[in-house]
## 1
Amino acid sequence: MPPNKLGTPLGDSAHNRGGILVITKRMVGIALTLLGLAIAGATLAVDLVGAGKWGGLGPAQQVAIVVGAALSLIGLSLIPLGDRPA
Amino acid sequence: MSVPHKDSILSKPTHSRINPALELLTGRVNQGLLLLALAALLFLFLVYLIYGVALFRFPFDYDQGEGFELWDAVLFGRGQWIYLDNETFPFYSSNYAPLFPLLLAPLVKLFGPKLWVGRVFSFATTLVIGGPSFWIVYRETRDRVIAALSGLAFFATNIVYQIGPLCRLHMAMVMFGLLGIACVARLEDEKHGRRNLWLGLLFLLAAGYTKQLAFDAVAAAFLFFFLRRPKQALIYGAGFVALVGGIFVLLNLATDGQWWFNAITANANPFMPGQTQALYKQWFRLYTVILLLAAAYALWTLYLDRISIYGLYFVIATAKGALSGKWGAGPGYFITSIITACLCAGIGLGLLRRWVAGRAAHPSLSPLGQKRWRWANLALGAAVPLLFLYQARLNLHLPLDHPLTRPVARLLNIPAESPHRFRQDYYDSMGYTQLGHLPTAADAAAGWQIVDWVRASRADGPTWSEEAMFTIWAGQDTVVTNPTQLYNLWNMGKLDVTEMVHMIYEQSFGLIIFRAQFYPPPVLDAIGQNYDVVDHVEMNGFTYALLRPKPR
């Protein structure tokens, strides 16, 4: 496969072809899952350290937890797509 | 002797083909719908032109920040920095990145400090955005109709209409961001990959130094780059961060820390979730069609194709809307989301149309299958213009007393008056908005009346004004105060008002002009104790209070 101007071979169907790391749907899925968990976890942790002016979950925290959970679900749903390039 | 394929047209049973007359009729109806959709979008583009020309002719601030952004260009033209100490006279500093006024400075030198210079510049950037929008959709889909519809849908949106022709930097940021994304999208091009990448990074750098909010374009570009070329993305990303950081540090050193203080610290206002929620609701209500289409396209690329840079840009720009929940922010924070939604909706629909048309003509399908796909193709031919027509209706906005738009207002049965309007001569599906109406000759005359007050008071000292253009037109050497900047800093406890309060008590200012009184409370108290209201002037829907020193 001919190199392009970036000096790397073209092609987008392989998991790891020609020494180029190809980001796959599974990798993106795992990253999104972890990101979502981190967002939700950090949002809950805010209460543990006593930050924020709300007694329970504040409105911004609720949104952040929903966003984190949604990201995790999207991430989990991508993992079965396996080695297809992202 | 060749044997006809079993699925050829000749071999199709009659019952599996669409009635030709019905197919012709449906095609004509679809063409009519398409013309209707194009007419609706072209009408809204005409409204945009009318509004733009009206603003070019209006010499005063239409939106409060315009004069200050023009003043930044004047300062750069004089070789002065725009990031200044707010606590000393003239109590003025910019809170935006420097590129927009830098680009404007030579034009202001050439034509003078007039708002039309910045307004024409900003309006031109929207036209530039429209061009690449058409080109991107066409490049991805080879569908001119969809490219035209989605390009025109961009100009039809309420927020682009309202902000596009203002002397504000937002649209220049969007233009640079979009051009950067369009270039990075082609980083794998065999012949021009490297050129596209470098050009894209240059545009992204320009976007970031036009307005800090361009981080969505930068994030989308580098995420896309990382998905396609991870190692190179990290290397280029490190270089980009170093370059951005280097410029940042140099700016900060050159301005003695005022760049960081005024452009970063002063913009970190408290978060108000309720405001964000309201703006997201309005955003979804006004742009429902293109948003749902764009979301569908983004999901399709996420699960069934390679992730698209435009889908990434749409998602990140939409998430950025969360930052709109702070004082001074507004629907403008959603412009990038809306523009990328137009792009993604166009690309998604174009690809869908191509796919369905391809299926309908596929020779391997059974006659019944072909018939179904041909019906699907015809149905899509009707759905596409109907979707854009509905989107145009959602975005409807027009002056009610302009000869070119009044007949349409009557045709659409828009009530002449409503308690929910800022001005009765303008209708906007957004509801209450202070932008969008056409300034009148009476508004301009009122502005000149205020300028006369500034000139008449000059002997008693400079004018302290909540808007810049009155003093600029009066030929005052400097603009005194950037009110929202002072107000922000005061609310954060980062402003010492001693010198300005002292000058007010000394009655150092010959005239004070208020519009919204966005000043720190001690400043307002001092003014109240030392100045009297001498006149009220109505301009552009606002009441301007003019104050002169109290007799002693």
Note: The longest strand of chain A covers residues 16-17.
## 2
Amino acid sequence: MITIIDYGMGNLKSLENAFQFLGEEVKIAKDSEEIGKAEKLVFPGVGNFGKAVENLKKKKIFSIVGNKAQKGTPFLGICLGLQLLFEKSEEAPGEKGLSIFKGKILEFKKVKIPQIGWNQINFRKKTPKYNLRLTTGRAKILNGIKNGSFVYFMHSFYPSPADKEIIAAKTNYGKNFCSAIESNNIFGVQFHPEKSGKTGLKILKNFINI
Amino acid sequence: MLTKRIIVCLDCDLNQPGGRVVKGIKFKKIKYAGLPWEMAERYYKEGADEIVFLDITASAERRATMIEIITKTCRKVFIPITVGGGVKNIKDAEKLFRAGADKISINTAAIQNPELVKELSRTFGRQAIVIAIDAKRRYEKKKGKITVETAKGRCWFECSIYGGRKFTGFDAVCWARKAAELGAGEILLTSMDKDGTKKGFDLELTRKISESISIPVIASGGAGRKEDFLEVFSQGKADAALAASLFHFRMIEIPELKRYLKERKVNIRI
């Protein structure tokens, strides 16, 4: 059973459809009680960072979302849901995010924004001596996904984690940016797996199987 | 790197029960190509990068039929879906998003009420708002219009609304800039001169708009050969290219088109 958090930031229908297509039961959670009971949480979202923080506080679920992630519930942040895991964003300078990870959300420069379309996720493993190109993702969420697979992006901002160890994949758009993270039970993707064809469905399947 | 996108447009006649995809709307005899959600699924499996549903009836009474089409499509199709035709307000848009649409495309309502673009963008995010511009070449000189050099002389581009039935006098380049400022995430640019001709996209129009704004441009109207797609990406500087009947009549198959483009060094998802 997957629980999707509904806090009024974007439509959840496609995500719900994708999980159901994969044979998984889905619950939409709007309050802290429902979120508290979740076995696996998906934190989606499109729109403004500041508005999202405001909505989370208005619905009194700001702290429970962060708590669930930090207390070991398998947690998948998608797009704005990933960005909210960090401390702050250039999109809403005054607002504080869930601050589970150190780092901030930056705006693309010198490229067309939003980045809309299919782009590749790349995996590299850094060792003291080498910078190896991996054939598949090392992260659990990217298990079985080939290096260079295409996924669908729609965003103007991207995360810049302070701890580079959590970066699971990078994507090039004018520069290499972090497009997926993984840290224990917490996963995050900047792209939309529910709109990324077979590759996206595989990523969601990986999350179901965690 | 970000790829160029191939987008399939499904023109839907919603007066048919459940809705039907129409092919060759330029011809007098309307031919029905199939059920919208079935065709969307076929193109998804063939490798289309996005699907656009266009309500050619654009009538308020048929809105429920479009919602049904989107609902059915989104159960099996996992690529972005855009819906256009007859969206007039936040409520119309919200229903489409709730059904599973990722983007909405508006033309007439945006020109008549530019504030709507701002409002939609604030509510649903910039990435969800596509402004459709139907532009026609005008060779007669007019003060204050942005012109480009073409094989037939200098021209400017006039915006039309109501599916090409009414001209507005607005300069398409200016309107595209304004729309981007108001919060549009993309421009869906159709050349009225080229639409239905199969003689290639309007490269001058597409390049001019693409170079004038910093949001992506989808070129539409005129695709007839694989070479046309190559040209609109390289010379027209389009970010995506859209076609309809060309694919419905199977004059070009998507996998074959994508291979062709990739062999010619265009960034394409295969």
Note: The radius of gyration of chain B is 17 Å.
